[in-house]
């Protein structure tokens, strides 16, 4: 065990001694005042038990011990939320040092990647640096502060093998992203100038593997299309020479749009233009179209704070000391007698809904609304009950009143149920189907403006935008606008999934250690080192 402030350990015995002294003085004064009032009252004022003073002394000592900030052991922390699995890959080859971007291609890519990390607070993010080889610097994690540190440390010296090999990058990305069973959709974001030195056919095959695995590929081009020299700077930052090939001629590099477009086409991905002033914003918009799902991450932390244990012990001792006194016991009895338990009355509409009587529940809610009970919530409950009773025309008239509520959550549910009722009507009204579907489309869009993360609204909006739905021909019947339960489609048991994740983490850790040591690996794919 360690202490944040060891010098404050003296507070514990000092607090215990002061508490003992005060308890003795108070007891002596109480006895003296009782004796002055009546000689017969003095024996009753003497403490019947020494345990009360002992409890106070121990509580003071525990509180004083906690002020020193004890730490020890190991704690497991869990973080979760709704997010994606995003792997950021940055090209660290020598060609990224060309200065046709401000200040050069690499620094501009790092700046945009850092902005992207800030814009994705709830997503799991990993970092890969690649050149002649690919190096996994960080696995998928919610610790974005660590991700930013890895991005700041990116440098061409990090890669032991020069050149640019894209096929190994796609292979590593596939292993990392498919090894994660939690979270939403998976995406690979690549910052590169496209100066690939491996065979284009190999890179295209790797991109096709990404598409088969359901990984979204986003390529952010860097640099310009005009040939540029690669400066070599000395320790002071001044240009001492330019990168030269084996014959001694200056190397010229440019952005290879044909390579980026071929990879995007093979992976069914997208290329973010290099001349966009806000590449991070464009990438964020592309990721916004993907589906976020629940994810959870566990971390181990050494020397966990233990001051709360000391505070809890002190509070318990004080509670026991207070509860053992006669005055506290009498006060507890009076409080229990003055506060009888009352059963909470369930509204009539809710009772009828639980019984499956939706039409009668709608009438009950309507009576409450007309009587001024519940306000906009009563009108919404009326409309939602009518939707459940499949009285769609009547429900639309009521829900149109609920969408005027000042509560954004209530407005979202009202718009969602309006869209659901109108969509159901379009299935029955073949003559006016197009008009009904257009009206339902507007309601679902309004609902998504209020809650962009609603999976139900997105699903039904997709039914209207696509001629054929992905898996069902009917909208999801969810009148309350609540998020459905996620189905477990994995065939693995929790133990098997945990074992797979552990093996992936061990493999990633070994890869990071090899990067840190910067072992010199030879690249046989190409003789180019930029």
Give a quick rundown of the structure.
Strand 9 (231-233) and strand 10 form a beta hairpin. Residues 468-473, 477-492 and 518-526 have low confidence and may be disordered.
Kindly provide the name of the CATH class of the largest domain. Answer: Alpha Beta
The percent of residues in helical segments reads 40-55%
CATH structural fold name of the largest domain: Rossmann fold
Major sheet summary line:
6 strands, mixed
Domain tally:
3
SS class: alpha/beta
Poorly predicted segments:
468-473, 477-492, 518-526
pLDDT averaged residue by residue: 79
Strand content: 5-15%
User: What Rg do the Cα atoms give?
Assistant: 34 Å
Would you identify the CATH H-level superfamily of the largest domain? von Willebrand factor, type A domain
Count of alpha and pi helical runs: 19
What would you call the shape? flat
What is the strand arrangement across the widest sheet? 5-4-3-6-7-12
> How many DSSP E strands?
13
What is the straight-line distance between the termini?
A: 51 Å
CATH architecture of the largest domain: 3-Layer(aba) Sandwich
Write a structural description.
By secondary structure, the chain is α/β, with parallel strands linked by helices. It folds into 3 domains: 2-69 and 306-332, no CATH class; 79-298, von Willebrand factor, type A domain (Rossmann fold, 3-Layer(aba) Sandwich), CATH 3.40.50; 348-465, Serine Threonine Protein Phosphatase 5, Tetratricopeptide repeat (Alpha Horseshoe), CATH 1.25.40.10. 50% of the residues lie in helices and 15% in strands. The strands form 4 sheets. Strands 5-4-3-6-7-12 form a 6-stranded mixed beta sheet, sandwiched between helices. A 3-stranded antiparallel beta sheet has the order 1-2-13, with no helix packed on it. The chain has a two-stranded antiparallel sheet with strand order 8-11. It is flat and about 115 Å long.
């Amino acid at each position: 065990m360690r202490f944040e402030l060891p010098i404050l350990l003296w507070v514990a015995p000092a607090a215990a001694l002061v508490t003992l002294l005060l308890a003795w003085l108070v007891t002596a004064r109480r006895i003296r005042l009782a004796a002055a009032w009546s000689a017969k009252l003095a024996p009753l004022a003497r403490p019947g038990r020494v345990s009360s003073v002992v409890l106070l002394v121990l509580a003071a000592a525990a509180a004083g011990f906690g002020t020193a900030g004890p730490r020890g052991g190991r704690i497991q922390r869990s973080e979760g939320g709704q997010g994606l699995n995003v792997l950021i890959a940055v090209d660290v080859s020598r060609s990224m040092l060309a200065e046709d971007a401000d200040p050069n291609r690499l620094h501009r890519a790092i700046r945009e990647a850092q902005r992207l990390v800030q814009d994705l607070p709830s997503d799991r993010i990993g970092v890969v640096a690649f050149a002649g080889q690919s190096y996994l610097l960080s696995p998928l994690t919610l610790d974005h502060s660590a991700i930013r540190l890895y991005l700041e440390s990116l440098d061409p010296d990090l890669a032991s093998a020069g050149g640019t090999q894209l096929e190994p990058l796609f292979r590593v990305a596939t292993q990392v992203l498919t090894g994660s069973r939690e979270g939403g959709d998976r995406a690979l974001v690549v910052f590169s100038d496209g100066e690939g030195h491996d065979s284009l056919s190999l890179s295209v095959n790797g991109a096709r593997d990404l598409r088969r695995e359901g990984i979204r590929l986003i390529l952010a081009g860097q640099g310009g299309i005009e040939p540029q020299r690669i400066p070599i700077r000395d320790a002071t930052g001044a240009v001492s020479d330019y990168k030269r090939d084996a014959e001694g001629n200056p190397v010229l590099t440019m952005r290879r749009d044909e390579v980026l477009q071929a990879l995007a086409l093979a992976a069914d991905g997208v290329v973010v233009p290099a001349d966009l002033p806000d590449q991070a914003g464009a990438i964020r918009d592309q990721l916004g179209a993907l589906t976020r799902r629940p994810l959870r991450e566990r971390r181990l932390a050494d020397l966990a704070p233990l001051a709360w244990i000391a505070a809890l012990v002190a509070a318990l001792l004080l509670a026991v000391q207070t509860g053992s006194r006669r005055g506290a016991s009498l006060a507890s009895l009076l409080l229990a007698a003055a506060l009888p338990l009352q059963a909470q009355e369930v509204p009539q509409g809710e009772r009828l809904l639980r019984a499956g009587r939706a039409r009668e529940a709608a009438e009950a809610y309507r009576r409450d609304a007309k009587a001024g009970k519940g306000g906009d919530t009563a009108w919404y409950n009326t409309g939602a009950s009518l939707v459940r009773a499949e009285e769609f025309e009547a429900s639309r008239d009521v829900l149109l009143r609920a969408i005027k509520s000042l509560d954004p959550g209530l407005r979202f549910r009202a718009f969602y149920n309006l869209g659901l009722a109108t969509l159901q009507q379009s299935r029955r009204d073949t003559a006016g189907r197009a008009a009904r579907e257009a009206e339902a489309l507007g309601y679902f869009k309004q609902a998504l403006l209020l809650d962009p993360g609603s999976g139900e609204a997105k699903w039904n909006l997709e039914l209207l935008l696509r001629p054929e739905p992905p898996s069902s021909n009917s909208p999801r019947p969810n009148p309350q606008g609540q998020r459905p339960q996620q189905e477990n489609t994995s065939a693995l048991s929790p133990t098997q999934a945990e074992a797979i994740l552990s093996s992936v983490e061990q493999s990633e850790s070994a890869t990071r250690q090899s990067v840190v040591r910067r072992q010199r690996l030879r690249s046989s794919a190409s003789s180019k080192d930029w």
